[in-house]
From TrEMBL:
Keywords: DNA-binding. GO terms for molecular function: DNA binding. Residues 11-71 form the HTH tetR-type domain. This is HTH tetR-type domain-containing protein.
């Protein structure tokens, strides 16, 4: 009996390499990446990692970008909830607390935030995500309130990453409620 050779699928292999790199970033941090570690984790030859990602910076950027996708999904779900049930401090806090309970999301956020100052391409990724976050919030609350909620959110994520436990829900409820100023609708 002979093994059927695996059909070449370059895009699949690239995704496997990125997924392996993302897992290493979450476990050991972005600076722990090496082509050799990623190849071993992905179960691919070392040459495959360098074929798709010539530099570690390229590989790191791809891994961190893939991790941001989950945060973008959370943002989309948050806005869908706002549309469905109304934008309120309670709705935001509930969603934020779910985010903080997801160790993968928190780890990804922490990794991107800590890497951004050192890598210009990652800085642009982090700045773009922050702008998207603020734009979404500003559809429902004032610009000043959105900036304050964003800062508090970043702090809650960092605190959760460092303490390995989500911020206390009642404290988040009070803090978000204090910062939340709904956008006033204007009539023509």
């Amino acid at each position: 009996m002979t093994d059927i050779p695996r059909r070449r699928d370059p895009e699949r292999r690239r995704r496997e390499i990125i997924a392996a790199a993302a897992e290493i970033v979450l476990e050991d941090g972005p600076d722990a990446l090496t082509h050799r570690k990623v190849a071993a984790r992905a179960g691919v030859p070392l040459g495959s990692t360098t074929q798709y990602f010539a530099t570690l910076d390229d590989l790191r950027a791809a891994a961190l970008t893939s991790l941001v996708v989950d945060a973008e999904r959370w943002l989309g779900e948050l806005e869908a909830e706002f549309v469905r049930e109304g934008a309120s401090p309670a709705a935001y806090t509930a969603s934020l607390h779910r985010y903080l309970e997801d160790t993968r999301l928190v780890g990804a956020d922490f990794a991107v935030t800590c890497s951004a100052p050192l890598h210009p391409d990652l800085r642009m990724l982090a700045v773009r995500w922050e702008a998207d976050f603020l734009t979404m919030l500003e559809r429902y609350i004032t610009t000043e309130s959105a900036a304050a909620v964003s800062m508090l959110t970043d702090g809650a994520i960092m605190q959760t990453a460092l303490s390995e436990k989500p911020s206390e829900r009642t404290l988040l409820d009070r803090a978000i409620a204090a910062l939340w100023t709904p956008r006033q609708e204007t009539t023509p």
